[in-house]
Every structure is written in structure tokens, then in C-alpha cells.
Amino acid sequence: MPDTPPIPTATPEAMLEAARQVIATEAEGLGALGASLGPEFARAAGLILRASGRVVVSGMGKSGHVARKIAATLASTGTPAQFVHPAEASHGDLGMITAEDVVLALSASGETRELADVIAHVRRYGIPMIGISRVAGSTLMRQADPGLVLPGAPEACAIGLAPTTSTTMMMALGDALAVAVMQARGFSRESFAAFHPGGTLGAQLAPVRALMHVGDALPVVGPDTPMGEALVEMSRKGFGVVAVVEGGRLAGVITDGDLRRNLAGLMERRAGAVATPGPQTIGPDALASEALGLMTARRITTLMVVDDAERLVGVIHMHDCLRAGVA
Asked: Same domain for 165 and 227?
């Protein structure tokens, strides 16, 4: 066994300077990439937008890792996509690429030999292929239509060889294609939520209607309800608030603060006289994160949910949002 070489030492300041230089170099590359975009990018985005099948993304090595991420971003923003490993493609996975698809092939050099069978397959069956490479005259770019050429920015590593700036530009170019197509489709926040139902992101995108309480759970009284009955309703439903509804429409709310302000002769009064008119409300299709933001800003714990006609349809409590993971 050869001797293990000693671990080189470096000062924290030197490592910080190296890190800043990497980021600066990659940022320059991204700036050059943005300035280089033109009609070929628009053609590539148009091919993806009009595809009746999927976008099949392929690449080898570091380009393959980027390709997987691009496929995931496309899929999560409304464009059906999948990654196909070029080496596996040569052993049967070419059958995953159909005539309705568009292929997006990534290769820094444009000469990745594992992509050869993918390129031959798409040419044989007339499948559109978008290429991304640093070398305009490479095999990939000669066969691609269109080809997106990465600008000649230096890699960010000290020896100028490790894929750093080039893979960052590939990733950004994939994001740019995904977002351009997403906007062209009119992909909405609601559509995005449908593809991201789980985890914190799913909670942030959950609509109020998914968390609100409805029906018999609503704390509701009429304007002529005696305050004694209103207090019973407030206590029974457990929200610390009761809605005053007249003709199905929300006329006001009674909170703990309203009770304190009206202690004198409270039990001789009617709910409509004690309620605060024009309370803060939210619609059922608003995001739960918006509801939580309103409650936090107003320093309240409950929001009445009303439809376009101001009819009470639900109630949402701050704890409902927090339990669901909205933050």
C-alpha cells in the first residue's frame, strides 16, 4: 500500500478566497450564457412546448447528473420528462424514446461516446434532438437541431479541468428552458401545487379550503342571538371567536377582545350589537401560507373564510396551518 500523502494545510482565509473565486468565475459564465441566448434557444423551447410526448434528457458523467435534475425540473413544472442513461440506452432503453418525444442531450465536449447510439436512434426515426455542448462543431451539435452552445468560460477549479462552470451553465440553461416553457403554458401556482403535494413545499401551496373547518364545526350565531347563547357557541366550537351571520353573509365577528370591551351589560345585549363589523377574511382558494401571513400580521389566530358573495364557507385557525407544516 502506498503511503497516504499528508493532508495539505490552508488558512481559512485562503479557502474563503478560493470559494469566492469559484463563485465569481461561475457567475461570469452565467452572465456570458445569458448574453449568448438567441433564436436557437427560442427554437428549443418551442420544440419542448409543442411536443406531444415527453422530453427525454440524457447525458453521461457530470452532464448526466445535470440531466437528471433538468428532467425533474421539467416534470415538476408541467412538461412530462424523464432521464435516460445513455449507456443503458444501448442495452434496451432506446425503446423509451418514441417518435412523439423530444430528446435533450448534454455533453460538454459533444463527443461523449455513450451518446452515440442515442444520436443514431433519433436520427434514424426523425426524433427532434436539442443538444447542449461547449463545442459548436462537435458530433452532438452537428446532429442536433437546434444546438445550444455554451460560451467558452473557464472552469472554476484551480487546474481548469473539473466540470464546474460548464455544469453550472448547463443547469441554468435547463432551468431557463423549463421556466420559459412553463410560462408559455400558463402554468399556475395551483398547477404547481398539484405536482408538489408532499413536504414543506406542499404545505406552503395547500389552499385554505384544504385546511378550513366547515359545516357544523363553524361557530355561527345570528345578529339577534342573545349574548349568553353566543358565548355558549363560542366556547363549544373552541376557536375563541364566533361569526355573526345574516342571510348567509358574514356580518361581523365576536372575539375575546370584543367581550372585554363590552363587559358592562354584556349579557343583556345581542350578538349583532357586540360584533366587530368588516372583519379580516380570506377566500377558500387562497394559499394557506397567505392565511398564516395575514393572521401573523394582524395578531389574530382565526380567519373567517368567505366566497365571492361574502357568504361564510369556513374558518381556519393558525394552529391548522402550523399542524400542516405551513411556516
From this structure: no
